[in-house]
Structures are given as structure tokens and as C-alpha cells.
Amino acid sequence: MQKRNLSIFSGIFILLAVVLAGNQAKAQNATDLRFNEVLVLNDSNYVDDFGQHNSWIEIFNSAYNSVNIGGCYLTDDLNNPTKYWIPTGDPATVIPPRCYMVFWADDMPTRGIFHLNFKLEGGKTIALFDANGRTMIDKLEIPTEQKVDTTYGRLADNSQNWGYLDHSTPGANNDHSRKASAGEQFVALDPLGFGMTLIAMSVVFSALAILYLIFRSTGKYFTKKATKPVAVEAKGGAEKVPARKEEISGEVNAAIAMALYMYQSELHDTENTVLTIQKVSRNYSPWSSKIYTLRKTPR
Amino acid sequence: MGSFFEFIIEHIAQFLHFTAFANLTVGHLVMICVGLAFIYLAIAKEFEPMLLIPIGFGILVGNIAFAPGYKIGVYESGSVLNYLYFGVLQGIYPPLIFLGIGAMTDFSALISNPKLMLIGAAAQLGIFGAYCIALALGFSPTEAGAIGIIGGADGPTAIFLSSKLAPDLMGAIAISAYSYMALVPVIQPPIMKLLTTKKERVIRMKPPRAVSKVEKIIFAIAGMLLTTFIVPSGLPLLGMLFFGNLLKESGVTKRLADTAKGPMIDVVTILIGLTVGASTQATTFLTIKSVGIFALGAFSFVIATFGGVMFVKIINLFLKEGHKMNPLIGNAGVSAVPDSARVSQIVGLEYDKTNHLLMHAMGPNVAGVIGSAVAAGILLSFLA
Fold first, then answer.
1. Average of pLDDT values for A270-289?
2. β-bridge mates for residue A95, sequence order
3. How confident is the model at residue A296 (pLDDT cuts 50, 70, 90)?
4. For the structural domain made of A30-179, what CATH number should be given?
5. Nearest to B215 among A201, A218, A250 (CB)
6. Confidence at residue A291, expressed as pLDDT on a 0 to 100 scale
């Protein structure tokens, strides 16, 4: 029986290990930052805080928590990964969940922490390195051919597909077309809700059915264990006798359980002395005298 | 001197402008009456007083007609009530309540007779029945999902899901869910009697076996792992429910369990009840949609009870004599703990004075809590 249990648990463990191996864990930190959109040739596109038309790089925080990009490195030279250090300690370097940060690649680092010490060119590779200066978080090979005022970016945020975008969207979603919500998409295919009912009830039943199956098995196991013959020492050696069947009624069990509960919760009375009330033969007592009472005896 | 009197009169007029009398509308009066009715039901009829008193009083608080702009109302940023309401809006209170529920729930009845779990699943039909009707009535998918969860008969779950899917309707949904939970002893018995025969109502079930501590501990851990592996979006509710239960069953964290099921759940119940009640300001609450939500809520309770009772009847077709279940415990599949189980007991005793169904009904009742949390997770993952 023990061997059987061991093999069941081993099987479950191996199954879990196989499932987990197939999935990559998703960390929620600086490694979730991604290059999202770049503009190399800026002629009449967005201007920086100095009113200049410069190249820019947009970074997207794909995590669902805020990520501080401070301390990371941006470079256009893979042999020099620590080319531009993004200063730490500035609250402006914190990127909120699923939001963006734009850096100006104008080779003017004296203009602020968002101005890099290199410029963008077609054919260059830019990269973002973690604070240790060795772990590459993301890299982007910029195509050689670049169109004026046309950005090159992911077709949708965090998508693997890149292309030239119709609209420049620094600090905003690359895909600005109206998208139906998950609910709208679901209802478009299932307007009456029967599909949802079928799927959801199946899932609820499956979840509870799995629990049922497991606890039916464990119940059998524990019941068997409880009624297992007990080995008792007899004169002639070990002798097996069946466990005595429970004969106590439910009511008695309930009474015992209540008594135990009250005992554990300290709700029972502590009777360490006996108080006896005896009738006093005298009719008059100072205790019942109106003189000594402060208020009337309640009726 | 004249200008002084003008000053006084002007400021008295200004003060009067700020009083609730000057800002009162018929809607406010209606809602105050609703609040008073809740308080009356709680005190005079003892219908869910722990919930109806805070909610009823919250309705009164929320419908004092003040002049806006002074950080008073529950919807005004920076007001005290708004800070307290944050726990509702962000879905913080419901998981904390589930922690307390877990710490006070004994799953023994369920573990000793695991097939009762399936009744808890069947009763979730009410959720999806109401979802379908809400869609047909023109509610948006997210609104329909949030309304449907009323059928789960679980206030915290209803608040949790509606705060995610349809925050605008949360007040109406929460009030509807709690009102019908309080009315479970009125709504369910006629349906139970309608769907069962006299012979079925007197079925005696085998007494539950004793469940060991190890089994209870395994249930808390395995229950959490299995349900949340299937529906991770239910993690805040299911995780806290089973965590609270482990605190109770482990036997070594009595203090933590006592806090979870005592002071903590009391504090959170007060906050959630008061703020949900206060969120029912007449200006946002008294709409046609709210009326629709109340109608759908009643419908969902009927469907849920139907689903639970009918499921037991169907299962009985496959069970041997002596192992059959009493269909009167089917209604307990909705998770209004322990009211619906109490209804099973009361209705059962009407037909056989010695047939106590309470312990058997507690099985589907607590399974309903798990089932409705799983259902909420599914709705969240499909519609959010």
C-alpha cells in the first residue's frame, strides 16, 4: 500500500515537473523591460524638452508592477555594455506597470538623465543591460533603411513582431486601434451565454470532482487505517485481533465533544468551594434592614 | 449694524444651504427607508443581523444629502469614508473575510462524504443562469458576470468580483446578494418542497464518519493547490479560505485562527458592511439597472436552489438503497453558510422529527463556498 502511494505521489511530482519545465517563469523586475519603439530620423516628429528633433527610444515595462530602470545601462555598442548608465535615486526612472519611458538618443547627456550619450543610426544594435552590466535584458537591431519621421517598433506592445508603424506613439500603446475587451470578444462568439455556462460549470465540476476523487481515496485509506487489526502481545507471540467497533452513539460523542470544547475554551464553572444558602431563624437581619441598603430591592 | 445683520443672515442662509434638508431628494428618502427596513429586519426578524445592521446603517450614512466638495461622501476622494471604501474597491476586504470563514469552517462533513462536493458545484448553476438572462436583457458582458455571481449567495465573492468587473454596480450587487442571503429561509423552502416528494424528504442519510486531523490538514493544502491550479484567478479568495482553514486544523496556530475568525473578521465585516451600505447613494443607486439587478438576483437564487436539489435527485438514481442522499440538502449548495444548511434542517424536521440533516447539509454548504469562488475566478479570467 505504501509503495502504491509512493508511486502515485512520484507520478504527480514528475507530471508537475514536466508541466513546469515547459513553461518559463515570468519574473516581474527589470528583466521585464523591453525596447518597444524607436525613431531614428526625426525631422518633424516629436520634440524633446529643449524643442529639438532628435532620435528617441521607447522602453516598455511589460510587468504588472512598477520597475525602476535606474542603474541599468543603455548602449549602442555591445562591446561596451555600460556605455550609458541610467542614474539611480531619481523617482522619474520608475516605470509604472505596463507603461513606457522615452530616452532621447542625441549624444547630449548634459541635458538630463533621459538624454543618452550616443545617437541612433540605421544598422546599429542597441541594447539594455541590467545593473550588473553583464546581463542583457533586451537588444534591438535597427534596420539599415530608415524612413524619415516613421518609427520602427513592435506592432503591439510586447509583441515579437516588428515593423514600421503608421503612427508615432512615444509613451503610448503601439497598437492604438480599438480593441474589443475580453468580455466583448467572448460574448461575440457566445451571445446567449450558454457556452460560458457549459465551460464554467464543467470547470467548477472538474475542480470539485478532482477533490471528490482524491478525498474518496484518502477516506478509504484512513477508514481502513482506523479499523486495521491491532497487534497485541499474547503469550504465544504476536496475535492479531480486530479493532473494537465503535459503539458509542452520536449523542454521546456530541456530549463529550461539547464538554471538551467547554473545557478547552474555559467556559466551565470552577467549583472549588461550596456555597450553601440556609434559612436564618431570626426574622430580623441587618442585611435586610432598609437602613443599611442603598437602594430598593428590585421587584 | 445693518451690515452685521446682513452678514449674519447671509451666513445662516449659507449654512442652511449646506444642511441635508436643503440637498434632500426623494431618492435619498427612499434609500433611507430601505436602510431602516434592513435595520428592522435585522433586529425584529433577526435576518442576518451581523450583515444587515452594518449595511442598513451604512445606507443611512450614505444617503445623508450633503453639499459636495467637503470630503464627506464615500465617493469623494480624500474623505474618511472613501479611504475605508478603498478596501472594497480594491477587493481587499473579501479575501480577509474568507480567511476568517476558513478559520471557522469545519470541512469534516465534506471530507467524510466527498460526493457532497458535487452538490456545491451543481448549485452554481444559479450564477450562470442569471448571467445568461442578464446578457439577454442587454447588460454588458462584464456587468452580466458581476450580476450572475449573486447566485453564488456569497457576499464577499460578489463584492470581490463586481469590484473587478463592474465597480459601478457593486453597491447594488452587494446589497442584492446580502438581501437574498438574509431571505434564504423565505426563498428556498417553497422550491425545495416543490421539487421533492414526501418519500424523498424523509430519506435518512448515513451518519458521517469521524475525520482525522491529518485528513483535515491534507484537505486544506490539497484543496488550495488543486482549485487554484485550475483557476488561478480565484487565488485571493481560495488561498485565504484554505489558509484560514489550515490555521484552524493544524492545531498549533490557535491564536492566529482565533484572531482570524474573531476580531479580524468582525472588524472587516463592520468595514465592508458600512462602506457597501454607504456606497448606495441615491444618486448612483436608484437606477433602472439596480431594479434589474434585484430581479436577477432573486432569479439566480431560485435557479441555484433548483440546480442543487435536482442534482441530488439525479445522483440518487445511480445510488443504491441505503446510500441515497436526501434532496433537501441540495439547496445548501449555495454558499450562504450556514443559513441554507439550517433551511435543510428545518424543512427536513417538518417531515421527520428525528431526521437531522444539518451535518449532511454543511457538506454542500461549504463546498458551495469553494464552488462560488471557483466560478468567480472563471468569470474573472474570461471577462476581465
1. 61
2. A67
3. low
4. 2.60.40.1260
5. A218
6. 60
Q: Where are the domains of chain A?
A: 30-179, 184-214
What is the pLDDT at residue A240? 54
Query: Residue A68: beta bridge partners?
Result: A94
Give the DSSP letter string of A132-179.
TSSSEEEEEE--S---TT--EEESSTT-S-EEE-SS--TTS-S--S--
Q: What is the pLDDT of residue A22?
A: 47
CA angle centred on A193, ends A187 and A197, rounded to 5°:
125
B121·A218 Cβ contact <8 A: no
- B43 and A CB contact within 8 Å: no
What is the model's pLDDT at position B268?
95
Task: Indicate the SS3 state at residue A292.
Answer: coil
Q: Which amino acid is at B178?
A: Y
d(CA B21, CA B257): 47
pLDDT tens digits, one per residue of B189-220: 999 999 999 999 999 998 888 888 999 999 99
Judge whether B210 is closer than 8 Å to chain A, CB to CB.
Answer: yes
Give the DSSP H or E segment for A252.
Answer: helix A250-264
Would you mind telling me the total number of residues written for chain B in this entry? 384
Write down the pLDDT at residue A279. 64
For A96-142, what is each residue's pLDDT tens digit?
999 999 999 999 999 999 999 999 988 889 999 999 888 999 999 99
Q: How many CA atoms lie within 13 A of B104 on its CB side?
A: 17
Count of CB atoms within 10 A of residue A92's CB? Answer: 12
Task: Tell me how many residue pairs between chain A and chain B have CB atoms under 8 A apart.
Answer: 127
Provide the 10 A C-beta neighbour count for residue A297: 7
- Grouping H, G, I as helix, E, B as strand and the rest as coil, residue B222 is helix
Please give the pLDDT value at position A266: 60
Q: Does B276 touch chain A (CB under 8 A)?
A: no
Q: If you average pLDDT over residues B261-273, what whole number do you get?
A: 94
Beta strands in chain B (DSSP E): none
- What pLDDT digit, counting tens, does each position of A158-168 carry? 888 999 988 88
With beta carbons less than 8 A apart as the criterion, state whether B170 and B85 touch.
Answer: no
Q: Which residues pair with A237 in a beta bridge?
A: A234
SS (H, E, C) B71-92: CCCCCCCCCHHHHHHHHHHCCC
Is A122 strand, coil or helix? coil
Q: Write down the residue that cell numbers 525613431 correspond to.
A: A39
A213 contacts in B (CB within 8 Å)? Answer: 114
The position carrying cell 451581523 is: B50
Residue B317 clears pLDDT 70, i.e. is over it: yes
Phi, psi of B69 (to 5 degrees): 105, 5
Contact B124 A191 (CB under 8 A): no
Residues of A in contact with B112 (CB under 8 A): 219
